[in-house]
Amino acid sequence: MTYLLIHEGEDREYLLAAGETLETDLGVLEVPDDPEPGQIVETHLDEPFTVRELRGPDLFNHLERTGAPMMPRDIGIVVGKTGLQSGDRVLDAGTGTGVLAAYLARMGVTVTTYERDPEFADVARENMAMAGVEDRVDVRSGDVTEAVDALAETDFDVVTLDTGDAAAVVERAPELLVPGGFLAVYSPFVEQAREAIQTARDAGLRDAETLETIQRALDVSDRGTRPSTRGVGHTGYLTFARNP
């Protein structure tokens, strides 16, 4: 099992497995075989590190990246709009770093995810092992559009897509989804979002809509509180639709 080791004074964080040893300028850090969350582990130079269990934001910050992963706020919208829950089966495409797959698997969801780049797929498998969800995430190397015929034999509760050619899968979504199942498409560009929602409607999916995700922080000071002027926090477009 992997844990987060935090040194508050030096603002350091390390992901380490139980029993693993790490050499740092603060000393040699040895993780116990079965540490408890909140336990203090000291290096041989008496520098203290606090043990924490991994949570979703820790995965986002520390998994090895092969591209820009889906932001936690986008994942939250996907979960909220589709009602994902433990026991659901998800078909995902565009694995990348695997942050979405890891988040969902830690909720008890079974994920089959496709990644075109074999090297990216290998990294994603390592990330799933680090997240402790390798038994619930099947990372497959290949193009999901070429596997749709075989995948149609499995009814998925939700299909999530983060690929440039998502529309090719959207048009087959009725064959992939259980009755009442949801489609969720992440698009970095508005043209892709438009194609996804039009294809969803043409395929007979219901309640198709596209949302732009924006998050804006508040600046809080002694003078007062106001919205931050450091950008609007746009990440992308999320298209949702439901199988009749």
From TrEMBL:
Domain tRNA (adenine(58)-N(1))-methyltransferase catalytic subunit TRM61 C-terminal span(s) in chain numbering: 72-221
Name of the protein in question: Methyltransferase small
Keyword Acyltransferase: no
Record's keyword terms, sorted: Methyltransferase, S-adenosyl-L-methionine, Transferase, tRNA processing
UniProt record, GO biological process: tRNA methylation
Source organism of the structure: Halomicrobium mukohataei (strain ATCC 700874 / DSM 12286 / JCM 9738 / NCIMB 13541) (Haloarcula mukohataei)
Record GO terms (molecular function): tRNA (adenine(58)-N1)-methyltransferase activity
SUPFAM superfamilies per UniProt: S-adenosyl-L-methionine-dependent methyltransferases (SSF53335)
Family matches, as Pfam families: GCD14 (PF08704)
One cellular component term from this protein's GO annotations in UniProt: tRNA (m1A) methyltransferase complex
InterPro entries (UniProt xref): SAM-dependent_MTases_sf (IPR029063), TRM61_C (IPR049470), tRNA_MeTrfase_Gcd14 (IPR014816)
